[in-house]
TrEMBL record:
<keyword id="KW-0732">Signal</keyword>
<dbReference type="InterPro" id="IPR005887">
    <property type="entry name" value="GH92_a_mannosidase_put"/>
</dbReference>
<protein>
    <recommendedName>
        <fullName>Glycoside hydrolase family 92 protein</fullName>
    </recommendedName>
</protein>
<feature type="domain" description="Glycosyl hydrolase family 92 N-terminal">
    <location>
        <begin position="27"/>
        <end position="264"/>
    </location>
</feature>
<dbReference type="Pfam" id="PF07971">
    <property type="entry name" value="Glyco_hydro_92"/>
</dbReference>
<dbReference type="Pfam" id="PF17678">
    <property type="entry name" value="Glyco_hydro_92N"/>
</dbReference>
<dbReference type="GO" id="GO:0005975">
    <property type="term" value="P:carbohydrate metabolic process"/>
</dbReference>
<feature type="signal peptide">
    <location>
        <begin position="1"/>
        <end position="19"/>
    </location>
</feature>
<dbReference type="GO" id="GO:0006516">
    <property type="term" value="P:glycoprotein catabolic process"/>
</dbReference>
<feature type="domain" description="Glycosyl hydrolase family 92">
    <location>
        <begin position="270"/>
        <end position="739"/>
    </location>
</feature>
<dbReference type="GO" id="GO:0005634">
    <property type="term" value="C:nucleus"/>
</dbReference>
<dbReference type="InterPro" id="IPR012939">
    <property type="entry name" value="Glyco_hydro_92"/>
</dbReference>
<dbReference type="InterPro" id="IPR014718">
    <property type="entry name" value="GH-type_carb-bd"/>
</dbReference>
<dbReference type="GO" id="GO:0000224">
    <property type="term" value="F:peptide-N4-(N-acetyl-beta-glucosaminyl)asparagine amidase activity"/>
</dbReference>
<dbReference type="GO" id="GO:0005829">
    <property type="term" value="C:cytosol"/>
</dbReference>
<dbReference type="InterPro" id="IPR050883">
    <property type="entry name" value="PNGase"/>
</dbReference>
<dbReference type="GO" id="GO:0030246">
    <property type="term" value="F:carbohydrate binding"/>
</dbReference>
Length: 759
């Protein structure tokens, strides 16, 4: 625990009101770190380039995706990580490791924990069995380490230039050390670079530059390369996965050593400047306090919560924290082109985040949302395509569609325009929709490029669906349709009426793979999406909508079964209601998606089914949405390290939880939000434009959570949805009256289906 701030509580009308300055104490940085959540627990600033954390070998779960695992041996404390990803570990570069006594540089050095790690916003502490305590704190592009050594020992700090994360359980996607070099002065200031390749995005070699110094001068410095130890102020290696670096040894009896490290994708000089710009001295407390301040002003202060339920307070601020670690703001750190536009990297991945994390940014911080869109457009401008995923400054991989289209349409629809060149934005989207990306061989799915854009575009353009000649044909068809809807939104707004009509029409193409006869004997209804051949026949009349083989790269569906993908048309749910035979059968089929009332076909721990529990709103059965969201939040999520139901996926899972707790959910790429029911009596959003949005839940209790009536901005509201401008442009209030009886309270129009056409 870091004693920076005490918890400040006041009681108003029986509710605990938290002052923003103490909110960081509500955050459990270990939430979702285990059980596949893969959240990164180390210190970082919102969207920070530096994410400082421990890296472990022999993690119980196999690969340590964020570097962290509560078990295993620590082989470095490094400067860069991703958070919450599946795929494969990325980064884990630029490391130090505190050691005592004689060090065998010819073998992998590790330390072991003597107690569980302790972490809080901006600060992390490891106690090791060698008696060393390692504390560290991150700024944006630099960080600070403070080591406390036991008295009477000879302390040293290992700087291993080839350290990086690897993927023992997925060796085909592991990173490799390529080459690197380091030099040092006698005071222990060191600069160098490390080049790495590989990883989930199959990155070509990329280089990180770094600069480090120590508050105390070392008594000796050893260079090493392989098992050779020698006296030299420079050392390098170009042996794949060779070991090289420096061992800085300090005078016997030194008990406290602090070190600062800066990183840069540009040069060692810039890495050193990043230290000077961000760290005034070696006081770790100062850096922690600055980090806490940034989280409060940029993230936590955007949302005030009133509740007497401490679990919910912890959930909300912890989820806000985990939702703001990625992407990374790398403006000024782009090695490939220079530009005045913002630059963001570590979209790992947009396939995960477009549904609700990007829409969350667009509420809490639209200027940040605009920066992200500008960066996507600038990546198209200079690199050819907007990414579906990107890290280490390289696009890759695309799982289904080109979902940056939806991120862009979401901002456009919500009037988020801050500096965005929408003509270029639309050109970038059109490239996704019209230009097949250059073929890049991918051993996981060699049928088409998975680097960027839409690999199966030739089929989409020729047949109006993706045939089984391509892998993931169902996923691609469904996502290309939704992506084309996103194009129609922007085209319409820009006045390109023929493009708007063209893409709107293309957005209905998902119906081409609807097979009205498809069924499974365990369900009473018929009609699912299914792979289709080029000649227009469905591939196999017995195609099982409840199965997807492995739901992976070479299957017909990616990370979801046909029974899940059939709902993936947020732009035209009304057509789906019709195809499924009307309100009642639509609702009955929804019941089967989760185990509350039905069979439980969907996995809320993965993104394809994120919107599904809210779809009851489209047939004015909102009480069923409310009941289901209660069930999913209360049974699938829990506080603590194992609390997420799946990979966090860069904060996507936390964003889903947040909307569930707030009581509404975005339909990405549109202005619509679907109402559920809040978990807390009062939420206030402090909008960037100075307005506030209040969400008030009257008569809320453990049993009173069904909506009886709603008012928006003081007026009776008979719809179970609202649009962005109703609240988030000028501020406003939603007031829910709650009770224990599920009733159909909504008599107004169902939520819009803007992709619906009669053609
Ligand atoms: C340095 O890092 C590499 C790659 O992780 C590792 O193989 C090597 O054993 C490390 N060297 C030392 C001395 O720990
Ligand atoms: C780490 O060790 C220090 C010194 O022994 C001790 O004061 C502290 O409580 C320990 N922290 C944890 C998290 O175990
Ligand atoms: C390191 O590897 C990269 C990529 O292969 C190459 O461009 C660079 O010249 C190499 N540097 C050295 C010092 O060998
Ligand atoms: C390395 O340099 C130190 C002085 O800094 C000296 O005492 C030592 O003998 C040298 N070792 C080797 C192997 O040259
Ligand atoms: C607090 O909220 C959680 C999550 O909804 C719930 O499980 C718990 O019962 C609530 N605690 C109290 C004291 O109401
Ligand atoms: C992103 O980073 C740049 C460079 O450090 C900085 O100027 C800018 O303010 C950052 N963006 C935000 C929204 O904080
Ligand atoms: C499905 O299509 C593939 C080629 O696209 C073909 O090889 C296979 O025989 C078809 N299977 C059925 C059951 O029609
Ligand atoms: C129905 O689904 C179950 C579960 O996927 C599967 O075992 C069975 O073979 C399916 N039956 C048909 C006729 O597709
Ligand atoms: C389906 O439900 C909506 C919302 O209640 C209603 O307006 C519509 O008439 C219903 N359709 C039919 C065919 O009953
Ligand atoms: C609050 O809920 C209770 C049931 O728990 C109900 O009897 C009462 O009428 C509700 N009050 C209001 C103001 O809706």
């Amino acid at each position: 625990m870091w004693p920076v701030l005490a918890v400040l509580l006041s009681i108003v009308n029986g509710q605990i009101v938290l002052a923003n300055s103490a909110i960081n104490d509500q955050v459990d940085v270990f939430f979702g770190t285990e059980n596949g959540g893969n959240v990164f627990p180390g210190p970082a600033r919102p969207y920070g380039m530096v994410k400082m954390g421990v890296d472990v070998l022999d993690a119980k779960g196999g690969s340590a995706y964020s570097g962290y695992s509560p078990d295993g041996r620590i082989n470095g404390i490094s400067m860069m990580h991703e958070s919450g990803t599946g795929g494969a570990p990325q980064y884990g570069v630029v490391a130090q490791l505190p050691l005592v006594g004689d060090v065998d540089l010819g073998s992998q050095q590790t330390i072991e924990r003597s107690s569980p790690d302790s972490g809080s916003v901006g600060h992390y502490l490891v106690n090791a069995t060698n008696g060393v305590t390692a504390e560290f704190a991150a700024a944006d592009r630099a960080g600070i380490y403070k080591y406390t050594f036991p008295s009477g020992t000879t302390p040293s700090v290992l700087v291993n230039g080839s350290h990086h994360l690897s993927a023992p359980t997925r060796p085909w996607w592991t990173q490799y050390f390529v080459n690197g070099s380091l030099s040092t002065s006698s005071e222990g200031k060191y600069t160098g670079s490390t080049t790495i390749k590989g990883g989930w995005g199959e990155q070509s070699p990329w280089t990180i530059y770094y600069c480090g110094d120590f508050e105390t001068a070392p008594s000796s410095i050893n260079a090493f390369s392989g098992s050779q130890r020698f006296n030299s102020s420079t050392v390098s290696s170009s042996i794949q996965d060779g070991s090289f670096g420096f061992l800085f040894t300090f005078p016997e009896g030194t008990t406290s050593i602090s070190s600062r490290v800066g990183i840069s994708f540009i040069s060692t000089d810039q890495a050193c400047r990043n230290i000077e710009n961000e760290l005034s001295g070696y006081q770790i407390e100062d850096t922690v306090a600055e980090t806490v301040k940034k989280w409060n002003t940029q993230v936590f202060g955007k949302v005030d919560i009133e509740t007497d339920n401490s679990t919910l307070l912890e959930y909300i601020y912890t989820a806000l924290y985990g939702a703001h670690l990625l992407p990374s703001n790398r403006t000024g750190e782009n090695p490939y082109w220079s530009s005045t536009e913002p630059y963001y990297d570590d979209f790992f991945t947009i396939w995960d985040t477009f549904r609700c994390l990007n829409p969350l940014f667009n509420i809490l911080s639209p200027s940040r949302g605009a920066d992200i869109v500008r960066s996507l457009i600038d990546t198209w401008r200079n690199d050819g395509y907007t990414p579906d995923a990107r890290s280490a400054n390289q696009n890759g991989r695309t799982q289904g569609g080109s979902n940056s289209d939806i991120v862009m349409a979401d901002a456009y629809a919500k009037n988020i325009n801050d500096g965005i060149n929408w003509e270029d934005g639309f050109s970038a989207m059109k490239k996704n929709a019209e230009v097949t990306p250059e073929y890049v061989y991918d051993p996981k799915a060699p049928d088409a490029s998975n680097k960027e854009g839409r690999g199966a575009l030739p089929d989409w353009l020729k047949y109006g669906y993706v045939t089984r000649a391509y892998t993931r044909s169902v996923t691609r068809t469904m996502e290309y349709a939704y992506d084309d809807f996103a194009l129609s939104v922007v085209a319409k707004g820009l006045g390109y009426t023929s493009d708007a009509a063209k893409y709107l029409k293309r957005s209905t193409n998902w119906k081409n793979i609807w097979n009205p006869e498809a069924t499974n004997s365990s369900v009473s209804y018929k009609g699912f999406v299914q792979p289709k051949n080029a000649d227009g026949t469905f591939n196999g009349t017995n195609y099982d909508p409840l199965s997807c083989n492995n739901c992976y790269w070479t299957d017909d569906e990616y990370e979801g079964k046909p029974v899940e993908y059939v709902w993936a048309v947020p732009h035209d749910i009304s057509s789906l209601v019709d195809l499924m035979g009307g309100n009642d059968s639509f609702s009955q089929r929804l019941d089967d998606m989760f185990a509350l009332h039905g069979q439980g076909f969907a996995d809320i721990g993965n993104e394809p089914s994120f919107l599904t529990p809210y779809l009851y709103n489209y047939v004015n059965a909102q009480h069923k949405t409310v009941e289901l969201i209660r069930y999913l939040v209360n049974t699938k999520y829990s506080p603590g390290a194992s609390g997420l139901p799946g990979n966090s996926d860069a904060g996507a899972m936390q964003a889903w939880l947040l909307f569930g707790l707030f009581g509404f959910y975005p339909v990405a790429g549109t202005t619509t939000y679907l109402l559920s029911s809040p978990f807390v009596p009062k939420t206030t959003f402090n909008l960037e434009n100075g307005n506030t949005v209040e969400i008030v839940a009257n008569n809320l209790s453990d049993t009173n959570f069904y909506v009886q009536s709603v008012q928006i901005n003081g007026e009776d509201w008979n719809k179970n949805w609202f649009s962005h401008e109703d609240l988030f442009e000028n501020g406003g209030t939603i007031t829910f009256e709650l009770d224990s009886q599920p009733i159909v309270w909504e008599t107004g129009d169902v939520p819009p289906s803007p992709g619906h056409t009669n053609s």
